[in-house]
Design a protein that fits this description.
By secondary structure, this protein is α/β, with parallel strands linked by helices. It has helices spanning about 10-15, 25-30, 45-60, 85-90, 95-100, 125-140, 145-155, 205-210, 245-260, 275-295, 305, 315-335, and strands spanning about 5, 20-25, 35-40, 70-75, 105-110, 140-145, 160-175, 190-200, 210-215, 220-225, 235.
């Protein structure tokens, strides 16, 4: 079954407008079907807070018909917030203390915007460690997205992320490299994934710790991997949760930063994302912006209306399939009591019975 709107979070209304089936609690309670409770540790900045909710809620809601999904967003107190975001969090988010008391069947940890490569210097570092360590002992499986992957690889496995010479930004082709793992054994052997990051954890770093690499990009980078047991922790380095317009929004943001003098160079276009037509529109706009800045004239409006109709989404079906399989596997091994990670008889060191 779909998502259950267990509170008044505005994301539920937006998802309904987009055509996703979201149940009211009264209707959900009339159905004799298993619940799964999923935590969403949302570490994204204020401007991306609600969009990140919708992206992950949509992936969960479209992924698997076997259960009713109760998604519990929460965040870290150490993250700086403006008053509007704080009001949103206070109104609709759980606290970590509530999460610990009630328990979870699964946990998703989002990325976050940081400047430096050394994550241990970030204000959220200690709190994130506490959440991840609690989940490692009490939650069936934790899915780490992008920066969360880098953080867990650092504090749990001692593998620090490495700054790349250039930003990996765009939509890139990937291949399944371990077809025996149930998380990927029923998806396309090749598929696209969006990336947006300056830092990387190399394949050798995963392998040195006995982690299982399931999906690599054409350039050899790791997109999807698991902890040595194959399931307790799932690592993404890309952003399969991205909406069709997510990279366009990032591109517009970077163009605006150049216009405001925050960037020295004009923003490069995300790779393999724009059609030839869209790329031509963006190049023409760049020329107009540069000319307007040189002449001190008013900056023309970004031609988003010309671009939107030509954007393609080549990753979301596979992303939903992977998330659906992940939740299905959790359903098979987790305890009915969400405060306990596994049903009786499941080996916590090898919950999927992998050889």
């Amino acid at each position: 079954m779909p998502l259950v709107a267990h509170n008044e979070l505005p994301a539920f209304g937006k998802l309904r407008q987009d055509g996703l089936l979201v149940l009211e609690p009264g209707l959900a309670n009339q159905q004799d079907i298993r619940e799964l409770h999923i935590g969403l540790l949302n570490m994204m900045p204020d401007a991306a807070l609600a969009a990140t909710e919708r992206q992950f809620f949509r992936l969960i809601g479209e992924s698997n018909p076997i259960a009713q999904f109760y998604v519990h967003p929460f965040t870290l107190d150490a993250l700086p917030r403006e008053q509007s975001a704080r009001t949103h969090i206070d109104s609709y988010y759980d606290s970590f203390e509530q999460i610990k008391q009630q328990g979870l069947d699964a946990l998703i940890i989002t990325g976050a915007n940081v400047i430096g490569a050394d994550l241990s210097k970030e204000v959220f570092w200690d709190e994130l460690n506490q959440v991840a360590d609690w989940a490692h002992q009490n939650v069936t499986s934790t899915l780490c997205s992008c920066l969360a992957t880098h953080a867990v690889m650092d504090f749990r496995y001692g593998q620090k992320r490495i700054r790349q010479k250039s930003k990996k930004w765009g939509v890139f082709r990937h291949q399944v490299v371990d077809v025996s793992h149930p998380l990927v054994d029923d998806i396309n052997s090749e598929f696209d994934v969006p990336h947006s990051r300056w830092n990387d954890v190399h394949p050798e770093q995963f392998e040195s710790q006995g982690l299982k690499i399931l999906v690599r990009g054409d350039d050899g980078c790791v997109h999807l991997a698991t902890s040595p047991d194959g399931f307790r922790t799932i690592f993404f380095q890309g952003h399969p949760e991205y909406d069709t317009v997510s990279l366009l929004k990032e591109y517009k943001r970077d163009v605006a930063l150049f216009i405001d003098g925050k960037f020295e160079n004009y923003a490069p276009m995300p790779e393999h994302y724009f059609s030839d037509f869209n790329a031509a529109v963006c190049r023409e706009y760049e020329g107009r912006v540069v000319q307007s800045l040189a002449l001190g004239e008013e900056i023309p409006e970004f031609p988003e209306h010309l671009i939107l109709g030509n954007l393609k989404n080549t990753w979301q079906d596979t992303a939903s399939a992977v998330i659906g399989t992940w939740l299905g596997l959790i359903y098979q091994v987790t305890n009915v009591d969400r405060r306990k990670p596994f049903m009786q008889g499941v080996d916590a060191d090898n919950p999927l019975g992998l050889e």
